[in-house]
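Help wanted!
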Amino acid sequence: MAEKRITIQATRFDPDKDSAPRLQSYDIPFSDDSMVVLDALNYIKAHVDGSLSYRWSCRMGICGSCGMMVNGTPKLSCSAFLRDYWPRAVIVQPLNNFPIIRDLVIDMDDFMHKLKSVQPWIIRKQQLPLGAGEHRQTTAQIDEFKQFSQCINCMLCYSACPVYGLNNEFLGPAAIALARRYNLDSRDQGLTKRLPVIADNEGVWECSFVGECSVVCPKGVDPAKAIQQTKLDTTLRFTLPYGNRE
Amino acid sequence: MPSTWWTRKRHYVLYMLREFTAVPMAAWLLWFLVEIKRAGDGPARYNPHESTAFVIFSVVCFAFATYHSYTFLNLAGVIMRVKLMGRTVPPRVVVLTMFSLWAVASIVIAAVLIGFAR
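Answered by r_m:
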């Protein structure tokens, strides 16, 4: 029986040598139905072309490092099975809406800056004394924010968001979802510190609810839901009596 | 991003269609204002059901308005977090309630308009 093969077309771009990115074709064995795009890239790097550059780490969909465009859709390359594309060619490109550093590696500085701006950590007005013990939470309190805590910062949502593509100032789905995660956490007291960033024109109000961010999210975070709920909550805070309560 | 970005995926096309629905609805409201002015000039000048163009345009705009309402109400379950007796109401129940209220409001308004027309 002839060996099954598959064509991978990967973006190549060396800023020192190339004026623009280009696609390079690799024909590789498709030996196992459990092979994912990341396996294909690793095969290429190990056996065909060692110069191909890309990010990856856990190869099990939890670190968020291997986000790429696979046939035009943002995906984790460790979770995109070749069997879903074979016998068609698989086109692997760097994530949309981010500058390319090299080949499939993108510059994520803008995302990191936006993430930091929402202060994604527990903010307390006053720390509990050690003797008071840990912050206790009921299951119901955890359920309030649990979905939004599943974000692995893979940036697939930014890649899918046409608003971010058209306006890089937009805070973006993941940052807002994480801000909501902490705003809903019963241990947190930092809502008013995050509000100037998330309730800004370039915050939640730039979102027009395309919803593609939630479609591509590999962890079911539903950032579109987080953004729309934040819009409603911030509006009610502004309009209702005692809206500026802590 | 190219100006044709929205043609890349079905979801983007449906999104643009949803956003576009505001245009025919606004156009219909402007035309409706003209019809109201004509009604003010007396019944001899006002026969909207004999204006074929207005009827056809109204039917087209009604389709856009229905799609606009459908997409908006469908998303209500995502936007609204309703708590009853300490438990979160499932999004499907919120959506069902919104559609029910829409149906009731439509029936009431239709009944009032038909009642006035008689």
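OP: Thanks! One thing I noticed: Chain A has nine helices and seven strands.
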